[in-house]
TrEMBL record:
Residues 68-151 form the Myosin motor domain. Keywords: Actin-binding, ATP-binding, Motor protein, Myosin, Nucleotide-binding. One of its GO terms (cellular component) is myosin complex. Residues 8-60 form the Myosin N-terminal SH3-like domain. It holds the Pfam family Myosin_head. GO terms for biological process: actin filament organization; system development. InterPro entries: Kinesin_motor_dom_sf, Myosin_head_motor_dom-like, P-loop_NTPase, SH3_Myosin. This is Myosin motor domain-containing protein. Belongs to the TRAFAC class myosin-kinesin ATPase superfamily. Myosin family. It comes from Sinocyclocheilus anshuiensis. GO terms for molecular function: actin filament binding; ATP binding; microfilament motor activity.
Length: 151
């Protein structure tokens, strides 16, 4: 599939934004190679013509809504800066979840406050579990490291 086939009407992209870093927009007309603008509509309804550098610099595609808030970033269809930042924002701001996997790596967002996610009950819940069986957590990483060390 050619890259231009992904930039079709109703698909969404991320465009740079001075205030929010990245802003979501929906494509209004199919992109054809050689075009110098992409017809977009922002979430507030504003339509704009997004200039393409030399007709080649297309903005990053946005993941489908079904993937929003994934607990493992490697499950995203598109893994780039705006996708990672949006997924972490959804998990942290909307769901109050500070941990997210990126494969075998644990990404943590500092909540700048104490959270009740480190007690004995949580330790026991992760004890003996495989990484990925439960929600991402530092205890899952520690359990996996312990099992690998013992092996």
């Amino acid at each position: 599939m050619a890259l231009s086939e992904l930039y079709t009407k109703y698909n969404r992209v991320w465009i740079p934004d001075a205030e929010h870093v990245w802003q979501s927009a929906e494509i209004l007309t199919d992109f054809k190679p050689g075009e110098t603008v992409l017809e977009l509509q922002l979430e507030d309804g504003t339509e704009l013509q997004y200039p393409l550098e030399g007709g080649e610099k297309l903005p990053p595609l946005r993941n489908p809504d079904i993937l929003v808030g994934e607990n493992d970033l490697t499950a995203l269809s598109y893994l780039h800066e705006p996708a990672v930042l949006h997924n972490l924002k959804v998990r942290f701001v909307e769901s109050k979840i500070i941990y997210t996997y990126c494969g075998i790596i644990l990404v943590a967002v500092n909540p700048y406050k104490q959270l009740p996610i480190y007690g004995d009950a949580v330790i026991h819940a992760y004890s003996g579990q495989n990484m990925g069986d439960l929600d991402p957590h530092i205890f899952a990483v520690a359990e996996e490291a312990y099992k690998q060390m013992a092996r």
